[in-house]
Amino acid sequence: MKLPRRIKGWLSAESTPEHLLERYYTKGDRSALARVVECYNRDVFHYLLSLSDEEFAKDVLQMTWLKVINHKGSHQFTHAKSWLFSIARRSLIDELRKTKHFVDITEDIHAFHSQTLQSELELADRVKLFNDALLKLNFFQREAIIFQQEGFSLTEIAQLTGESFETVKSRLRYGKNHLKVLLGHNDE
To answer: How far is CA 68 from the centre of its chain?
Structure first.
């Protein structure tokens, strides 16, 4: 089977996100950065959106890519996805602290707790129920679950968050157990 030229280019070792970032920083190749953005923009936005509202997530996403563009440190990238998510995470936490958004999110979560599970079932499908239940978790449990959904291993999540492996494992366990209770899966 012959692959189209555009797809074939993505399969070469020189087209890995790590190599593309290195090419952007060493040679100023904007098309390399554009391909990295194309590859990860959606995933990073999903992560940010899962932890904040849409406008806030868009703002932090833009800040994240600006930080990537203006990066002045080492140009050796071993895992581009982890590096990008760590920048997004730090940017999100910084902005949440600046705007005291942590308080707003907590208040929204408490207001959400007052709704009954029965009214949620009548208003939403299963995906919406899961997302709503996810919002009821504390920030750190929700973050660990979202990172895991994005494909990061426990070790990578620990590195991204600066927490121990056991702390991440515990956050995932308690978060998943809380989700089961919220979704009415007590028997599992």
So the answer is: 16
If residue 104 lies in a helix (H) or strand (E), which one and from where to where?
Answer: helix 101-113
C-alpha distances in angstroms, 185 versus 25, 36, 118, 145, 175?
49, 39, 14, 17, 13
Q: Which residue in 5, 4, 6, 39 sits closest to 21, CA to CA?
A: 39
C-beta atoms surrounding 182 within 10 Å: 19
Q: Which domain range does residue 114 map to? A: 100-188
Q: Is the pLDDT of residue 7 over 80?
A: no
129 vs 165 pLDDT, higher one: 165
The domain spanning residue 115 has which CATH number?
1.10.10.10
Q: What is the DSSP letter of 100?
A: T
Cut 0.90: pTM above it: no
* Cβ-based neighbour number of residue 142 at 10 Å: 22
